[in-house]
Design a protein that fits this description.
The chain is of the alpha/beta class. It has a single domain, classed as TIM Barrel, CATH 3.20.20. It has helices at about 5, 10-15, 35-45, 45-50, 55-65, 80-85, 105-110, 115-120, 120-135, 150-160, 165-175, 175-200, 210-215, 220-225, 225-235, 255-260, 275-280, 300-315, 335-345, and strands spanning about 70-75, 90, 95-100, 140-145, 205-210, 245, 265, 285-290, 320-325. The strands form two sheets. A seven-stranded parallel β-sheet has the order 1-4-5-6-7-8-9. α17 (about 275-280) links the parallel β7 (about 265) and β8. α5 (about 55-65) runs parallel beside α9 (about 120-135) and α18 runs parallel beside α19 (about 335-345). Bound molecules: coproporphyrinogen III.
Amino acid sequence: MTNSELTSRLLRACRRLPVDATPIWLMRQAGRYMAEYRALREKYSMLDLIQSPELAAEVTLQPMKAFDLDAAIIFSDILVPLIGMGLKLDFHPGQGPVIHNPIKTTYEIDLLGTPPAEETMAPTLEGIRLATAELTPRAIPVIGFAGAPFTLASYAIEGCGSKDYAKTKALMYREPAAWKRLMEKLVTVQADYLLKQAQSGAAALQVFDSWAGLALGQEAYRRYVAPYNTVLFDQLNQAGVPVINFSTGTFSYLEDVAACGGDVIGVDFRMPLGAAWQKIGLEFPIQGNLDPMALLADWRDLKYQVDRVLEEADGRPGHIFNVGHGLHQSTPVENVRRLVDYVHEQSSHSDTF
Ligand code: CP3
């Protein structure tokens, strides 16, 4: 065990070791709800921030200065590696990300490149080095991340967010061989990118499969997603750092999600943690799962919902507190501060560490 593995609450929880208080970090902890972030966005586009190592590190550190969080997550977006594969990505204010040349034919799948991350994602790898240098003295890990192949494939095919995933599922069901080629290319690129984030200093990795569960039932997940996620997580065993497997909408087949791999299972806000543990077994650490919209409530109701999450976790080693999906841009900063401090206070048991 390295020194930071001994002292970081997050890394200890990833191994189900006892902690002095439950670790907490929040998906989308850097972003528009913070005035410091909005001030930078007045001057720079989203891609400017991501493609400058110094600015990406600065945004990563903004919530670390404001709150007593137990981990940072490198500032970027899961869609950025698609640029290196040949897709034209833009972030439109109010509209979200758009791909100007979405995949329309199977031939376009064959044209997609699979360049190594040091050629296409170098600013993010350098941003991880910079943020890690700042946080290592405090024994706070930087989390690296990437999207899982289904979530990226659906964006590459739809070109924007989708309610029914019609184009994605049409390709998946009608052209299984082309689907396999696309998923394999995405696994190649994401596995390489995640391994290089770990080599650049990321002390944990999170894979976001935000959409597979919203789009697919168990049978389709097993046939069209699980085989590729399994290869991805298998390759990440070489990273030497814990891997968090996060998905949404997958409660009815969470055991299939967990079987794909990952050291920690990240769960959304739709399921009680106790039920999730029952499905996958107590040997898995779990990350989750406050509804991020609870942070839009008054403290009394927010506290009530936080207490329910802590009650479900029941003080077990191997609980990482998080929201069950990213923070909303209208989140009051004061609620984030109270949440982080309250989780630490409520879960604090200094005798066990
Ligand atoms: O968690 C973090 O703080 C790390 C950074 C991060 C972002 N997006 C920054 C971001 C991470 C891990 C993501 C993941 C991501 N991005 C996912 C998977 C998780 C999820 O939320 O479902 C998906 C599907 C995307 C794609 C994406 N990026 C969408 C749909 C949007 C538009 C929605 C929105 O909130 O604007 C984005 C934009 C985005 N990604 C912003 C940020 C901070 C807002 C950019 C801005 O306008 O400043």
